[in-house]
Design the sequence.
């Protein structure tokens, strides 16, 4: 994806602002997911066919992770190393989601659709963040 396309998505030509926005979107989405898992692990577990204890644990982890990503997004120029860590964690989450779906989880139909979709959204965030990091000149 070119810097022009990224700028259009972020609605700004300023690379650091672009990066901050993509981090903020990631934090908001991850935080919403984490909170949903925390407050509705039972109903979501039944809907998705995933153990509610696992969803509760993931809710705690995702909420904490979202807070960290949100703090990073709040910095005027997010430092490269933590941004790279966010990108790598997002890619790891994506891979682990597909692995868990293939070898560990036995989800309902809703879960079998939800798991890869959310994994691809997370991979999309990683791609946007990587592109914005490159545009900011932090290779």
Sequence:
């Amino acid at each position: 994806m070119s810097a022009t396309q990224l700028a259009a998505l972020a609605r700004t030509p300023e690379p650091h602002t672009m990066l901050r926005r993509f981090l903020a979107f990631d934090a908001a989405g991850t935080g919403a997911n984490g909170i949903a898992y925390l407050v509705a692990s039972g109903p979501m577990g039944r809907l998705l066919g995933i153990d509610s204890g696992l969803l509760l644990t993931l809710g705690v982890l995702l909420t904490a992770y979202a807070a960290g990503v949100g703090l990073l997004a709040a910095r005027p120029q997010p430092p490269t190393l933590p941004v790279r860590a966010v990108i790598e964690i997002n890619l790891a989450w994506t891979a682990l989601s597909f692995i868990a779906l293939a070898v560990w989880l036995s989800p309902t139909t809703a879960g079998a659709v939800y798991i890869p979709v959310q994994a691809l959204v997370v991979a999309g965030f990683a791609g946007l963040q990587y592109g914005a990091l490159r545009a900011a000149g932090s290779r």
